[in-house]
Specification:
Elements lengths: L2 H21 L1 H15 L6 E3 L2 E4 L1 H16 L2 H5 L7 H16 L4 H24 L6 H26 L3 H6 L7 E2 L2 E2 L8 H20 L5 E2 L2 E2 H14 L3 H15 L4 H4 L2 H12 L1 H4 L1 H20 L1 H21 L4 H34 L26 H31 L11 H16 L9 H11 L13 H16 L3 H15 L6 H17 L3 H21 L4 H20 L3 H21 L4 H20 L8 H14 L4 H13 L3 H14 L6 H12 L3 H16 L6 H14 L9
Antiparallel strand pairs: 1-2, 3-4, 5-6
Helix pairs in contact: 1-2, 1-3, 2-3, 2-7, 3-6, 5-6, 5-18, 6-20, 7-9, 7-10, 7-19, 9-10, 9-11, 9-19, 11-19, 13-15, 15-16, 16-18, 17-18, 18-19, 18-20, 19-20, 21-22, 22-23, 23-24, 24-25, 25-26, 26-27, 27-28, 27-29, 28-29, 29-30, 29-31, 30-31, 31-32, 31-33, 32-33
């Protein structure tokens, strides 16, 4: 081992602080955890006198916790425990009960508790801290994708260079032999199986983002290419189990989030694969496989939530059957031999034999197990090897520990299907959480075959566990899937220019969704869509009451989920659309009131998550829009210059590079009677870009007139007239200000303006 490995491990907490400083707290967390897993060697351990050993888990957790303390301390105060956190709490506490029930010494107990907290507790807690951050799931899914893309060239380097990267960097060569004539890559994982599993999880996250169109491009490159690279890395590893989980994960996403995109293609491909293996597996297996595919298709079309529940609960149900011996060893081994053949079947049959012996041994201490492997305690005398996480965990911590582990792994998927109805998974806003949930599910499946601790996994679990519903409460199945498909058809008709047909179909969707009033957000989506279509058809008077119906539903959703920032942001967007509609009708006082409600929602999100640039810009946009209405709105009785100045100044402080913010600030200063400040703001606006709307010059004319510079004011008015004569569209506000400026100068309004 070279000194580089030791230096990297010890310096990692400092490197994490750099990530926090450059990327911000949440992205710093993601980069620190994923980076530690990818680039630190698990073979390096630093003994600490009187303390547990210093490992890559210690380095990652220490760096992240210090980073949050320095850069995001308030995050700890915002944490509120929920009932589902009990699974993590029990998991971290069960070593205490296990060691005490076995009467073992204190130091091994401290070491065991530390290991569990480092590997599961702290990353889970950090994920829970950031669940409410807007876009947290998207950032994490993108981080997983980029990690998979980064690993692909490293995997290719090892496969074709037949050289260990760990050996090159740290002097710790890792070699797993050859498979199908190819060098088996390891990179920094414990072995090639772990590397393949990690690549599979990243590929699944990328595929979900691509299928739902949640991300279109990264660095100007279509996201489909990045997805292909991540999937290619998983395939190159050539590990059978990981490839199987990759196929299952992609299939599950394709028949849920990708149903509108792929149709029946996933089931057709799966059926073709079953028929291909008929000569090897036999007719009985083919019939079982085709029947299973048919059941899956039916459930995905008509009972999709039940399908996800079955998929997520399959591991604990299987383990319950194994531990209770309700499924015999002979039944399992005969099925395995039929599917995999004698050579591969023997490997799995041997696992089952060892697990059965271990189950019998653990039942001597069923609740809390044998506490430790030291002295051969947690392994039956006739057991040679144990590979699966579940049986290892059960041997050490018993049925209580095993139950807490699988509750922690399975609950995120169950809660996701409940909070976010599966029929909405095709929405781009759902793409990230769907990919993360399916990645957790595939890790859970793999834990029944292998035992790999990956520090990003509990981070994902903690985040997904706490994510609230963003599409309203879980809806019933009454005609829901049909109306969702029709709403997608509405979008297609509108894109084709068939707006009248789209509006008529949207009315039908609304009538269906009115039968299920529990889905407030879903119904509000339909109302919003219809209002957009009515405005496209220039039926503005009809659009306004439809917008109000959407707003009523959004307020109902927000009242039941006031702590959900996504719900607040959605409510703000609804208010903004309604305010624009009211402005076109000249109803200024109502528009100002609705804009104020939107600003309240944006302020609530931005105050909780000030590091989120998207939330801050949305808040600044609403500050700017309301300041404009209070300055330039058509109802002078609603003018409030001091309030407008305060809002416009705050918007400029948040984003000083935005031209329109400086223009609004200039308008506010004009109304507040401070023409010198107005000229300074308008000068900054013109430095940021040319006057393409005429508002910079008309406001300059008004400011100059107030300062007693009629020549300068007329010069600015002349530029406004050139703008108007150029045939560019002029808003009613610009024409109104033009009239006001000419009155200030005591001149008449030119005919072109009239």
């Amino acid at each position: 081992m070279s000194q580089t490995a030791m230096v990297a491990l010890l310096a990692w907490p400092v490197i994490c602080l750099l990530f926090f400083a450059v990327l911000g707290p949440w992205r710093g967390v993601i980069t620190s955890y994923i980076g530690s897993y990818l680039f630190l060697s698990g073979q390096v351990i630093v003994p600490m006198a009187g303390l547990p050993d210093y490992t890559k888990f210690t380095a990652a957790n220490l760096g992240v916790l210090i980073g949050i303390l320095i850069f995001d301390l308030r995050r700890f105060g915002a944490f509120r425990p929920r009932w589902y956190d009990s699974a993590a709490l029990i998991l971290c506490s069960v070593p205490i009960a296990s060691f005490l029930s076995n009467g073992l010494e204190l130091w091994p107990l401290i070491s065991a508790v530390n290991s569990t907290i480092q590997a599961w507790g702290i990353p889970y807690f950090v994920g829970r801290l950031y669940f409410g951050r807007p876009g947290a799931d998207r950032d994490l899914a993108l981080g997983m994708t980029l990690a998979g893309v980064l690993m692909t060239p490293l995997i290719l380097f090892e496969v074709f260079g037949q050289t260990s990267i760990s050996g090159l960097l740290y002097g710790i060569p890792l070699f797993n032999g050859y498979k199908y004539g190819f060098y088996r890559p390891v990179v920094m994982a414990a072995n090639s199986l772990e590397l393949a599993l990690w690549s599979t999880l990243t590929a699944i996250s990328a595929f979900s983002l691509w299928v739902t169109r949640a991300v279109s491009k990264i660095a100007g490159v279509p996201f489909g290419l990045w997805t292909a690279i991540a999937i290619g890395g998983a395939i190159i590893c050539l590990e059978t189990a990981a490839l199987g989980f990759l196929i299952i994960g992609i299939f599950l996403i394709a028949i849920t989030a990708g149903r509108s995109r792929f149709g029946a293609l996933p089931e057709l491909l799966a059926s073709g694969a079953v028929l291909v293996v008929v000569p090897k597996a036999g007719l009985r297996f083919a019939l079982m496989g085709l029947t299973g595919i048919g059941v899956v298709r039916y459930l995905s079309l008509h009972r999709n939530r039940l399908l996800i529940l079955m998929a997520s609960l399959a591991p604990p149900i299987y383990l319950a059957l194994r531990i209770s011996r309700l499924v015999s060893r002979e039944a399992l081994t005969s099925t395995i031999y039929a599917i995999l053949g004698n050579q591969r079947g023997w490997s799995f049959a041997f696992r089952i034999i060892m697990e059965d012996r271990m189950i019998k041994y653990v039942m001597q201490r069923p609740l809390f197990g044998w506490a430790t492997y030291a002295g051969g305690r947690a392994r039956a005398p006739d057991v040679k090897i144990l590979d699966s996480m579940w049986i290892i965990f059960m041997g050490i911590y018993g049925i209580i520990g095993l139950a807490s582990l699988y509750a922690l792994l399975c609950l995120p998927v169950v809660l996701t299907s409940r909070r976010r109805p599966v029929e909405t998974w095709s929405d781009p806003r759902q793409g990230a959480v769907v990919g993360l949930a399916v990645a957790i599910l595939m890790y859970t499946y793999d834990s029944m075959l292998n035992a790999y601790s990956m520090i990003p996994v509990p981070l994902i679990v903690g985040l997904v566990m706490g994510l609230p519903a963003v599409m309203g409460q879980a809806r019933s199945w009454v005609s829901q899937s049909t109306s969702d498909r029709e709403l997608e058809q509405v979008d297609r008709f509108a894109a084709m220019g068939r707006v009248k047909e789209a509006e008529a179909m949207c009315r039908r969707v609304i009538s269906v969704r009115l039968a299920d009033r529990s889905g407030h957000a879903s119904l509000a989506d339909a109302y919003d869509r219809r209002a957009d279509l009515l405005e496209t058809l220039n039926r503005h008077e009809e659009a306004e009451p439809v917008r109000r119906q959407a707003l009523e539903l959004r307020i109902a959703v927000a009242s039941s989920a006031s702590s959900d920032p996504t719900v607040r942001a959605t409510l703000a967007g609804c208010c903004e659309r309604l305010a624009r509609t009211l402005v076109t009708q000249g109803r200024w006082s109502e528009a100002i009131e609705i804009r104020g409600l939107a600003l309240e929602q944006r302020a609530a999100v931005a105050s909780v998550f000030p590091e989120d640039q998207g939330a801050l810009i949305a808040y600044a946009d609403d500050l700017n829009d309301l300041a404009w209405l209070l300055s330039v709105g058509g109802d002078r009785a609603m003018s409030d210059p001091p309030r407008a100045v305060a809002m416009a100044e705050q918007a400029v402080r948040i984003h000083p590079g935005c031209k329109s913010y400086w223009n609004t600030l200039g308008a506010a200063y004009v109304r507040a009677g401070d023409p010198s400040a107005a000229l300074a703001a308008l000068r900054q606006s013109l430095q940021l870009g040319p006057d393409e709307t005429g508002f910079d010059e008309i406001l300059r004319a008004m400011a100059l007139a107030s300062l007693g510079d009629p020549d300068g004011a007329r010069e600015s008015l002349g530029r406004v007239d050139q703008f108007l004569q150029g045939g560019r569209p002029a808003s009613a506000s610009l024409l109104r200000l033009r009239t006001e400026a000419t009155e200030m100068l005591g001149t008449s309004v030119p005919a072109v303006v009239q």
